[in-house]
Amino acid sequence: MPFAHFLGLSGTSPRMEDGGEDDERRQRDGESDDEYARRMEEKDREEEEARRAEEERREEDARRAEEERREEESRRAEGEEDDVDAEEDDKDDKEKGSRAGRAKGARQRERIRCAAIVAAGVKAGRVNQACVFAFDSNLTASQAIAALNAAALDAPVARQGSGLRERMSAVRPPNVGADAAPSGPQNAAQLIIAADAKRRGQA
Predict the structure, then answer these.
(1) What's the pTM?
(2) Rounded CA separation 85/72 (Å)
(3) Using one digit for the tens of pLDDT, what is the confidence trace for 91-132?
């Protein structure tokens, strides 16, 4: 302040005292109060801009840190999902393997069933009927075999002696020489003479 020493005040402004403040904040020698005020306003603007830039930088750093945190969480979540997917895949593979094993066992049991039914049909002489039971029905082997045995009980029983002898006994043989004269030595001689005459062309 001009003439400050007349008022018993220090001629040096508090801003010019050595108190650790920046020298830029001190009023320079020969600098009027208006010039000093304008310079300080400019300085304040620069510091405000620097403060805002620092705040923006910090906000940007915070934003990046937040993005990195979210990305890390996302990666961890994806890793957990991959683990869950891997577990689900393993579970699916086990289930598929179990289903394949059950299907293989079912096919084996079906082959055994069909073989047992057909074998029983061959033994009973009813192969066609056994094949129908085996391949065209859902009967178990025991049910199909029981049906084959029941059909055998209902078959007609052949009569005793119905062979060739009985059939031949029912056939009446032709009576050869039925039109000939009663047999006897005299008639036999006549027949011989007649046959000889016929051979010679006399008859």
Answers:
(1) 0.33
(2) 19
(3) 777 777 777 778 888 899 999 999 999 999 898 888 998 999
